[in-house]
């Protein structure tokens, strides 16, 4: 098999060791004679897989005991509806949800939330082309808001929060961490709800994590669909209906792998080093351009443009020929994007940097 480095934004690269273990266990999991895909989600084998995954994730993120970890479906976009449907019952009607608009994904969250409540965009980085996180002093928050929603890593715009926002009173803070969960240390206690689709930094598409503080499990609107009701999902240990069993199994292998590497603090150090390497190369040559303010540059998703955009196709073809895959930017913003998630080895970033230098030289 040829060695490639896959810079896809998602579904994205997984640790090779995890894929090898999954391949070895594909037909016969631990002598059970069954593939994990063939097991009942209520049988002892799968329950063991699920419980280990939950325990390892709780340890990796230091999730406090008063939070539930829910393994759900519906993706990050699903949570854009599931969050309001589960939280709006706690606010006087008509309720207002506060948002900080930092890019494409928080923009989609705003759009969906408008179906359920009044929306206040407390701050927006739209005017500057989503190249920074608006300073918290400038946010115009609503007293008594149902909650405040932020996207702490904007996957398309390459903008990442380097701080945990503070909220007023008991307004819960909700964070979409789909594309940087487990890449850096997070103080979970600062958040009411954290959600993340799995396909960026955790495992296969089809699994969505929601980490919900206990006191927020019981505020659903009556119209909230039963399978998306956090209290019901929590009471059923995420097995209200059939969960995405194989995706949970792979996620569990990824969690165990991260623990072997030394946990989130260790992977964060590597991620800082990878990002430094890539941004330094992009800044060094005015052939390339990343417009994001230095303190808001994402460690996970690095969008960049060639100064001469007529060379885009040539750049991508040359990259592909060297096994540097899926570098094309999101269609909404164009240019290039290198996603360098946890599972991207530093050798992959170095190979990209070497190519950047060589292409600019030519
Ligand atoms: C990918 C992504 C989503 C959408 O996830 P789906 O699983 O496709 O619904 C939402 N938010 C962020 C930040 C993402 O990166």
UniProtKB/TrEMBL annotation:
Enzyme class (EC, first level)? transferase
One GO biological-process annotation of the entry reads: pyridoxine biosynthetic process
Tell me the ranges covered by the Aminotransferase class V domain, including all copies.
Answer: 4-352
Q: Where in the cell is it found?
A: Cytoplasm
Q: Which residues bind L-glutamate?
A: 42
- Record note on cofactor: Binds 1 pyridoxal phosphate per subunit.
Q: Name one GO molecular function term.
A: O-phospho-L-serine:2-oxoglutarate aminotransferase activity
The record lists pyridoxal 5'-phosphate as bound by 105, 155, 176, 199, 241-242
Q: Which Gene3D superfamilies match?
A: Aspartate Aminotransferase, domain 1 (3.90.1150.10), Type I PLP-dependent aspartate aminotransferase-like (Major domain) (3.40.640.10)
Q: What is catalyzed by this enzyme?
A: 4-(phosphooxy)-L-threonine + 2-oxoglutarate = (R)-3-hydroxy-2-oxo-4-phosphooxybutanoate + L-glutamate; O-phospho-L-serine + 2-oxoglutarate = 3-phosphooxypyruvate + L-glutamate
User: Where in this protein does the record say N6-(pyridoxal phosphate)lysine is found?
Assistant: 200
Role this protein plays: Catalyzes the reversible conversion of 3-phosphohydroxypyruvate to phosphoserine and of 3-hydroxy-2-oxo-4-phosphonooxybutanoate to phosphohydroxythreonine.
Q: How does it assemble?
A: Homodimer.
Q: Which protein is depicted?
A: Phosphoserine aminotransferase
Source organism of this protein record: Massilia forsythiae
Q: What is the lineage of its organism?
A: Bacteria, Pseudomonadati, Pseudomonadota, Betaproteobacteria, Burkholderiales
Q: Which gene encodes it?
A: serC
